[in-house]
Amino acid sequence: MKYSAARLLWEGLTGHKGWGRTWRDPEPKTHYDVVIIGGGGHGLATAHYLAKVYGIRNVAVLEKGWIGGGNVGRNTTIVRSNYLLDGNEPFYEFSMKLWENLEQDLNYNAMVSQRGIMNLIHSDAQRDAFRRRGNAMMLHGAGAELLDAEQVRKEVPFLNFDNARFPIKGALVQRRGGTVRHDAVAWGYARGADQNGVDIIQNCEVTGFKIENGKVLGVETSRGYIGAGKVGVAVAGNSSKVMAKAGMRLPIESHVLQAFVSEGLKPTIPGVITFGAGHFYVSQSDKGGLVFGGDIDGYNTYAQRGNMPVVEDVAEGGMAIMPMIGRARLLRMWGGIMDMSMDGSPYIDKTHIDGLFFNGGWCYGGFKATPASGYAFAHLLATGSPHETATAYRLDRFKTGKMIDEKGVGAQPNLH
Ligand SMILES: Cc1cc2nc3c(=O)[nH]c(=O)nc-3n(C[C@H](O)[C@H](O)[C@H](O)COP(=O)(O)OP(=O)(O)OC[C@H]3O[C@@H](n4cnc5c(N)ncnc54)[C@H](O)[C@@H]3O)c2cc1C
């Protein structure tokens, strides 16, 4: 079924009886050309592009829970392509271009909203760093503006300019950045993949791999054995656990990141604002809630819920930069498990096991990468070679010394 204004009008007039299922609920087959493990944004996008762009349609996405139950439905919905390094910026700009055409591509309303992202500047050194970053962005066609303090004040007068511990000295702005309704992205990609013949199988946990003579032959699941020509793993915070079943140890640590939503307010914040000096970022959802977050919880965990010290830290960050947030009531909060890589950049790569491919290490930033990650992973699975924008995301880069240390803070996940 094609979604359109005419269809909506027709269904409105006829009691909404004609809407079909958004995707099928098939029984798993005994064998697929490609099995994708993980029905998050990245796994579903991979399946969509495999079928649509590369013509590989005998594909299954195996999800242990439900579509959108992982980080794709838990993030703070921010998309941007404001990176500095060559290994990253072309990839994230490719992603931004895919976001800009996503709703047409999927025929699905993902509420892509390019309301702009503003990274606040608090010191002369930070201004220099952001000027360099802005120049790199412009070289790749991403667009960037450097604002002084007065220009920032005009756009967001409610910030703490006058009594702040970290006075605002300006901002780096990307007008094309913004937000996208996160779970609609999962649903849209699921629908797109399903329409091209991909089987999306929920409540199907992968419990092991069948590997013989260095080649992967299939996966053991809670719904039985499924054979596969190739297997792509895109399980985000569960990466280390799943790849351990194939005997691999990854340069990844799992940490919790929390998100918060306030009660609905009248339109207050025009776009996304980030406060690097205290680590706090905030935007406003279309329902009016302030959506915000801060640091990861400091220790390793697979628990999908956060802890109070970080709640306090995020609240302090919010109060420091935007004191009026203290008047808003917190509606809800939740946690998601982050696959933190050692240099803050992701992996999209083959493994030493023939036919087994890995996508992960997305840290805080994998939502904005969803379209490009899916596209590049589909390219790798289909052709065996990396997509031109993802050549740097190698698993062996710590051995070869080719780290992509975007923030220049070294190999410590809690710093990225
Ligand atoms: C609170 C929070 C805020 C964030 N904010 C942002 C943001 O503003 N912008 C941004 O760019 N990024 C953000 N991120 C990061 C982003 O959400 C993730 O990097 C990205 O969603 C990860 O990829 P995914 O969507 O495929 O993951 P997921 O949705 O987690 O998908 C992985 C799936 O694999 C499944 N799985 C795991 N093990 C198995 C198994 N054995 N068998 C079968 N299935 C399995 C899981 O159930 C899960 O559904 C945030 C994350 C969190 C938690």
Automatic annotation (TrEMBL):
Known catalytic reactions: sarcosine + (6S)-5,6,7,8-tetrahydrofolate + O2 = (6R)-5,10-methylene-5,6,7,8-tetrahydrofolate + glycine + H2O2; sarcosine + O2 + H2O = formaldehyde + glycine + H2O2
GO biological process, any: tetrahydrofolate metabolic process
EC numbers, comma separated: 1.5.3.24
Gene Ontology CC, one term: cytoplasm
Keyword annotations of the record: Cytoplasm, FAD, Flavoprotein, FMN, Nucleotide-binding, Oxidoreductase
Protein location: Cytoplasm
Domain Rhodanese: 34-78
KW Zinc-finger (keyword) present: no
Cofactor(s) recorded in Swiss-Prot or TrEMBL: FAD; FMN
GO molecular function list: nucleotide binding; sarcosine oxidase activity
NCBIfam families hit by this protein: soxB (TIGR01373)
This protein's name: Sarcosine oxidase subunit beta
Species the sequence originates in: Cognatishimia activa
Name of the gene: soxB_2
